[in-house]
């Protein structure tokens, strides 16, 4: 998994009815775009995360 600042991290809901959580990657802490990432969620909360298999990266050039 590789990302750059400005990409979107999407954590998919794990159970039926749970909403996806979207966050903007504000800092890449790993080497060459690899995790961990500092992210800012839509509610303003910031966290450092190492994405799991239920997460996808939407690169800024492909976002609509």
Automatic annotation (TrEMBL):
Q: Which InterPro entries does the protein's record reference? A: DUF1918 (IPR015035)
Q: Where is this region: Disordered?
A: 44-64
* Endpoints of the signal sequence: none
Instruction: Report the residue ranges that make up the DUF1918 domain in this protein.
Output: 1-57
Spans of biased composition, class Basic and acidic residues? 55-64
Q: What is this protein called?
A: DUF1918 domain-containing protein
Q: What is the organism of origin for this protein?
A: Streptomyces griseoviridis
The source's domain of life comes to: Bacteria
């Amino acid at each position: 998994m590789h990302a750059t600042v400005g990409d979107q991290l999407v954590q998919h809901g794990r159970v039926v009815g749970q909403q996806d959580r979207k966050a903007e990657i504000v800092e890449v802490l790993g080497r060459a775009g690899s995790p961990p990432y500092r992210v800012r969620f839509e509610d303003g909360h910031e966290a450092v995360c190492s994405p799991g298999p239920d997460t996808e990266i939407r690169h800024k050039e492909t976002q609509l």
